[in-house]
Every structure is written in structure tokens, then in C-alpha cells.
Amino acid sequence: MENPHSATLTQEQGSSLWRDGWIRLCKNHMALFGLGVMVFFCVIALLTPWIAPYGYEQQDLQLGASPPSAAHWLGTDIFGRDMLTRIMYGSRVSLLVGFVATGVALVIGVLWGTVAGYAGGRVDAVMMRLVDILYALPFMIFIVLLMVVFGRNILLLFLAIGAVEWLTMARIVRGQVQNLRHQEFIEAAFSMGLSRWIIIRRHLIPNTLGPVIVYTTLTIPNVMLLEAFLSFLGLGIQPPQSSWGLLISHGVESMEEYPWLLIFPGLALSITLFALNFLGDGLRDALDPRASKD
Amino acid sequence: MPLLKMASVSILLSLLLMACGQGESNTASGNRLGILHLGNGTDPQELDPHIVTGVPEHNILTALLEGLVLKDPSTLEPIPGVATRWEISADGMRYRFYLRDDARWSNGDPVTAQDFAWSWWRALQPALGNQYAYMLFAIKNAEAYFRQELTDFSAVGINVVDDHTLEVELANPTPYFLQLLDHYSYFPLHRATIEKFGPPDQRGSLWTRPGNFVGNGPFSLTEWQLFKRVIVEKNPHYWDAENVSLNAIHFYPTENITTEERMFRSGQLHRTATVPIDKLAVYRREHPELLHTYPYLGNYFYRINTEMPHLSDKRVRRALAMSIDRDAIVQQVTKGDELPAYTFTPPDTLGYTAPDGFTYDPDRARALMAEAGYPGGEDFPVTELLFNTSEGHHKIAVAIQQMWYKELGIKVNLHNQDWKVFLNSVNGGNYGIARAGWIGDYVDPNTFLDMWITDGGNNRTGWSSARFDQLILEEAPRAETREQRYRLMREAEALLLEDMPIIPIHIYTSKSLVNPAVKGLEPNILDYTLYKNLSLDNLSLDKKSAAELPD
Question: Minimal Cα–Cα distance from B391 to chain A, Å?
Fold first, then answer.
């Protein structure tokens, strides 16, 4: 069926959801600010081994805990280790854990939830019961078991956290998909003979993006704190390495005497959290396929 | 329906009011009711005196049981416990104890000389695995009986003359024998209770549980909730019950010392087990009256598992010890007036000072590592440094980890475990380097040296030296003068420090925060507390008595 207007139509389609989203995101200053901060932190984290002023394990016991000064911009901890350096190195672990673990959770959770929600019936029941069972499994025991079997390994930590965090994601996505699957545009796509996979990919997943993005931005800081908790138990990263979570949990112990040991890592984590939230909000608005095109 | 609603609302309201009424802090209610709230560091491993080895267990057991003698907390001299008096033969080899008639178990049974004899017999049963069995080796033939070279217990120097007279014959004149009697290895146990719950030499039988435990101390066990608290209440059958002022003691197993300090600040504890390093300066500045520090007869050290191939070389062990800057640790990390330790026995223990076994010498340490085949730390296997969970131990470990890395180029991983798991790992030799602390059981250098005999229950390093065993078990005990005995002990300690199965780090200071209401606490180098001497100042009583005074 030749259509004389097809050429112009294709051009219109060129303005895809993603491109549209990007244009809308650019108009949202807070979201752009969030994105900028995250990019900045990631660049710093990547360059840390070359730009850090000191070594992260380098101690100066004679100096001890000292407040911010010209030599140590953010002060030193009780071992005389430079806080700026430790926060920079800490960001490598924290951001990596945050993104990798959340990424793992995102991929598994969205796929699992969409398939369950779209397939429905017996497949849905089996898949969601599996999620329920994993939910019931005590998280700590699961992680400790993994560590016992595979040894203490930072990559495993990412996987373990991701493997637990996807459960909620799967439930959220399944709920969304169940709502969407009987709507007219899905029926229309189906009646046009699109395969299930294309329907899921082109129509269902983009429509669940809003809640998924919000939940993802909440998961990242959560995962960072989880890492601190596991490290405190001796299951996560090991000293002298550091992460923001560990720095904060040690900072709390001495917050009256040496407040800068808590304030600076705390600030780093809060700024990241804020930036992610702004970015998440912006992305949700920008990528909402139902939003009107300007 | 409205009636039901009203009823539920009123129930809710009254619950709320009740909750508000309970706003009184532990210490305030404790002062009123005579309940002492003590931080105890960790949950006891067990409450069987022939199984435990730690200080937290000691703190509870001295409330539950009482030996033949007690110690005066201010002078640490022996004072009457279950025995009212004792006679010592001229050669110092025979002791005769006269037990009081009114000593009673917490179920009302009389405490007799047989109870002591039976308990000491149990302590020496090899199947029980008592790590403190060597404490009883002061008694004639006790060691031979423990090693099963002798099967007849009547040959051991314990003689029950009658129900209230006990005679002990020693292997050697042991000047500190009376002090030993106040250690839990020498406490009496209630035979009928233990036999009711299993064979006497069975570990972990249920006789130590609340409700089952029968003791002869000033308090009896009423509650033991794992990782929550242990409660002991005044024992009405105790012979000196009228002089026991406290009605109960609650022991809290708070491993997180920051939490413990917060509990103290919010009035949940009368006394803490220790003080967080970062808080020492704050208390010194703002509340010096609450902070109690005192020299403590103990050594903070690391055990080295000499059975690990790369740690079996004494050059490696010496290098590890010599590359730790102890001055920096005590001044910058622990900050509690501790002394850097270059010997195992604390200096001037009853006049005994050991020669320094090594010095801080990183250059020499590097040379030793090179000699041992690890120049610059090359090829040195990554070793695990194990400690029981506590921020204080963690800080010292982090500092030492870096010193070893900087000076020797070797990498160690830090690994922390809960106290019970930790003790199991160390006992099983399942470690590379492990944190340890040894507090003198009595004031004599022997308590720091006899633990290192071959296969001694508290050795746990796999280290063994025939000459050391001979000096400690045979020559020193037979010495005629104190000077001669100390000379032999110095020789033994030099052997220990030469082989370095341990790395001494610092001599302890006891640190605690104490509520001013606690009266009768006497500082001493054993951090020894006689619970029956303690009392709590009740503020409301104070006001009353003040009002009665004429202005």
C-alpha cells in the first residue's frame, strides 16, 4: 500500500521517544544540574588514581585527626589519612556498587515483571510465587551464604545486592504491565500482527518507565548504604579501602570530637542522592510517552 | 459498637499513660530498687567455670560463685570467703582451710569441703577440655592426673578432713596459691545439679541455664537472654547476705562500644565495660568525674599461628613485631595512657620486670624478612588478621596493617568475628594472626608465663619449647627465693620473646564510665570488683535524710 505521504511520516517518526525526551530534559534545569553533578562525580571517580592528592591507605599517625587545612582540604581521619582522597576513592566503590547493583536489579526486574505481567495466567503465577519465595528468604543469610561459598569478592557483592533488589522492581513493573496490556494501543499492536517481543519492547517497557526510573533513583542510595552495612559486618570491602557508607559509619562514632569525618562523606552521599532524585524526576517527565509533544 | 469503641480507646489511652510512666531511666529505677546495670562487653561464651576463659564470663561468675578466699579490692590481699581461716605449713607446701558452717548453696544445701574436692576433680577431667586446667597444677599430682599418667585421684594432694576442713598439698611452694583460689577454676560447683543434667565431664550441658544453675555466691542466675542481658538476683542463702546491698545486677552484652557509651549517657548503664577511644578526650575535658582509668595488669597482643608455613619462621615473626611503632599506637590510636609493650609480662608485676625482647627497628625487620626469603614482602602470602568485633580492635588493626605494608611491603586482610565464633577460630588454630588480650588472673608473673607451656589451654599458637616448659613447670616453682624464681622466669620469658609466637602491643589501662551513684568501687590493677561491697546511692533517700537534718 503506497502512501504518497509516507516520506514525511518517516521524518516525523525520526523524532523518537528518546530524542524527544532529551529535548524535554534539556529544558528542565534541575534535572540537567543533577545530570551534571553525576557526570562530574563519575569523572572524578574515574580519574581518582591520577588526581588524588595522597594515597588512600597512607597514614600519618603523628598528625592524627586534623580539621580541614591547606594541606588536607577536608581534614584527616584519626590515622592521619587524607579525607578528600578517601572520599574520592570511596566514590569509586560507592558509585560502582550503586550503578552496577542497580543495573543488575533493573535488567532482571523489568524483564521479569514485564514477562509475568504480559503473559498472565499460570506463567505469571509461577513467576510471581518465585519472587515471593525469594522475598521470604532472609537477605542477610542469603548474602552470608554467598560470601561463605564464593569468598569475599567485591564483584560478588554487586551481584548479591542486585540479585536481591530486583524483586520489588519486578512487582512494580508487573503491576504496570497488567494495567497496560488490555489497553487499546496494545490490542491494536497485537491485531497488526506484531510479535510479543516487539510489543513488550516497543510498547510496554517505555510505558512503565516513569515508576521504574523513580524507583531506580531510590535504589541507588539504598544500595550504597547496604554496602556500608555489609562492609561493617566484614562482608563487603575491606580496610584500608573505603566507601562512602563506611566513611559515614566510622564518622558517626566520632562525630562529637571530629565532626568533619562525618560531614564531608555525608555531604558527598547527600549531594549524589539529591542529584539522582532531580535527574530521576526529570527523566520521568521527559520520557513519559503520554506527555504531549510540543 | 460505640461501647466497644470507647473501651478500646480507653485501653489505648491507659497503655499510652503507662508507657509514659515508664520514662524513668534504668539507672534511676536501679538506684531506687538496688539494681546495678553493668556493661559487660559481650555475651558470655558459657557460664561453666571449667569451660570459659574470658573476662566477661569472669564478671558474671564472681557474682554467682565464691571460692575459699576472696580478695580485698583495695589491696588485693586474700580475705575470708567460704573459708574463715587457713593455716599454712612452714615449708609453704600444705594448706589447711576451715570452712564456715553457714555457707549455703542457692538451694539451701550446705557448702562443704567435698564440694570443693569434687569441683577440682571435675576441672581435671581431660574429657571436659578445661583450658584453665593448668591453674590446678599447683596442687600435688594434679598435672599427672590430668595427663592420665595417674588414675587414682586420691593421690592428688586434695584431702577432705571433714565436712568443713579441707587440706591441700602443693607440688611446690607456690607463693600465689591463695590468690589462685579466687579464680573461677577453683570455685566449688554443686555436684547434684551438674549430675542431674548430664555426665560431669560433658561440655555444654544445661546446668548453667537460669533456673538450673545452683551457686554459692552473693547472687543467683535468674535470666540469660542471648545478646540481650544476663540478670542475677540477690541470693538469700548466701552466708553474708545481710551485707549485700544490691538486690540484682543486670549485665549487658553490648559489643558496640559507641552504643554502650550512648547507653551510659542516656542512663541505661551504671558502668560501662570500656570507653570509646574518641570519647576519652571529651570526658577528660567535660566530665572527668565520670571517667575512671587505672593501670590494668594485662597485655594486648597478637597471637601468631606458628603452624602456618610462612609464619613458622621465627625471623618473620620477629620482623612483624619489630615493625610496629607502638608509641604511635598508644599516643594516636588508643590514647588511654597505655604503655607500649616490648615484653609479655607487664613491667613491675610484683617486683618482676622482664628484659625487653626486641625494639622498634624497621630496618632490622626488613633485613629479617629478606633473610627469611621475602625481600620487600615479595611472595609473602596474604595473611588474615583476625579480631573480635569492636571498633577499638579495628582501629589498632588498621594502623598495624598499614605499618606492615609500609615497612615490610606485606599485605594482611582484616577480618572480624563475633566473640564466640572468634574464640572457636582461635582455639581451633583457624587463623593466621589473631588479636588477643591477657589479663592477669592473680598478681604474679607466673600468670603471664605458665599459659605458654606446650599445649597449654591458653597457648593456642602451636609454639612449644622444652626448655621453657622445664623452667616454668619445674625449675621456677622449686626456687627457694623470690630473686631466684624471678631469674628463672626472666630466662623463660626471654625464650618466649626470642621465638615470638606472640606480638606484644601494649599494656592495658582499664577504662570505664561510672555513674556517681555507684559506691564501694575500689580501683585496682586486676579491675577486680567485689560485688557485695557495692551499693547504689538512692537520690530520693538522700533528699529524705537531708530533710531530716536540722538546718
Answer: 9
Cβ atoms A252, B258 nearer than 8 A: yes
- The answer to whether B74 contacts chain A (CB < 8 Å) is no
Contact: A254, B417; criterion CB under 8 Å: no
Distance CA A189, CA A204 (A): 11
Chain B from 227 to 266: CB within 8 A of any A CB: 258
For the record, the C-alpha cell of B307 comes out as 603452624
Who wins on pLDDT, B177 or A257? B177
pLDDT tens figures, A169-228: 899 999 988 888 888 888 888 888 888 888 888 888 888 888 888 888 878 878 887 887
Is residue B311 helix, strand or coil? helix
Q: What is the DSSP letter of A242?
A: -
Query: A256: which chain B residues are within 8 Å (Cβ-Cβ)?
Result: 278-279, 282
Distance (Å, whole) CA B475 – CA B467: 10
Among A15-29, B256-270, B279-293, name the one with the lowest average pLDDT.
A15-29
Give the distance from residue A94's alpha carbon to the nearest chain B alpha carbon, in angstroms.
20
pLDDT, mean over chain B: 88
Cβ-based contacts under 8 A for chains A and B: 59
Q: Does A144 touch chain B (CB under 8 A)?
A: no
| Cβ neighbours of B416 in A, within 8 Å | 234
- Residue A253 and residue B329: Cβ atoms within 8 Å? no
Which runs of E-coded beta strand occur in chain A? none
The domain defined by B9-43+221-293+511-545 folds into D-Maltodextrin-Binding Protein; domain 2 (3.40.190)
Domain at B66-197: CATH code = 3.90.76.10
Query: Is B281 touching A (CB cutoff 8 A)?
Result: yes
Probe site for chain B from A54, A61, A66, A82 (most B CB atoms < 10 A) = A61
Tell whether the model's pLDDT for residue B473 goes beyond 80.
yes
Task: Give the CA distances from residue A229 to residues A157, A220, A222, A226, in Å, rounded to whole numbers and listed in that order.
Answer: 12, 15, 11, 5
First and final CA of chain A: distance in angstroms? 30
Domain edges within chain B: 9-43+221-293+511-545, 66-197, 295-509
CATH class of B295-509: alpha beta
Task: Quote the CA–CA distance of A27 and A20 in Å, as a whole number.
Answer: 11
Answer whether 0.90 is exceeded by the pTM: no
